[in-house]
């Protein structure tokens, strides 16, 4: 589904088909091939602080890539890579020792017997179009599965696909406090 409430083509699944809460807007987007945490809000100040790159709020992704990235590829991601003529901000990158426990993906990722996969955790502080996919491809490890695990201190823990919940006032205050300008 598209992580927006309108569709210019009018024939795709959108948030409006699943979320019946008036006046909320997504903070960031997930592309059609990605999954994970999407924050919806009607809180203008929170929307601004989480969307504006000057605040550099962290977003954590679990990324399944082709093959096992070596130390040089991981270092490139940590330093930032060039995408469309612009260098990305440095990322925090960690190899996950095993695949995270996630529900099956529909449709499943492409599987090739002769090409192993591995999982990375990337923490970004900017949100360009298809950034994670472009970053991993730039270092020679195309993304197969992409899951946004966290936005700031909020995580997917305890939520099944399609589930949603309201934030507590304390969570809103914590998100506002986490995203102070650099």
Quick overview:
The mean pLDDT is 86.
Task: Give the topology, please.
Blueprint: E1 25-27, E2 35-36, E3 39-41, H1 44-51, E4 59-66, H2 71-79, E5 82-83, E6 86-87, E7 92-96, E8 117-124, H3 131-138, E9 143-151, E10 154-155, H4 169-178
Parallel strand pairs: 2-9
Antiparallel strand pairs: 1-3, 4-8, 4-9, 5-6, 7-8, 9-10
Low-confidence stretches: none
Cα distance spanning the termini:
34 Å
Instruction: Give the CATH superfamily.
Output: Alpha-L RNA-binding motif
Strand content: 15-25%
- Reading off the top of the CATH hierarchy, the class is best stated as Alpha Beta
SS-based structural class? alpha+beta
Average residue pLDDT: 86
Helix content: 10-25%
- Please tally the β strands and state the result: 10
- The geometry reads as globular
Tell me the major beta sheet.
Answer: 6 strands, mixed
Rg, rounded, reads 17 Å
Total helix count? 4
CATH topology: Alpha-Beta Plaits
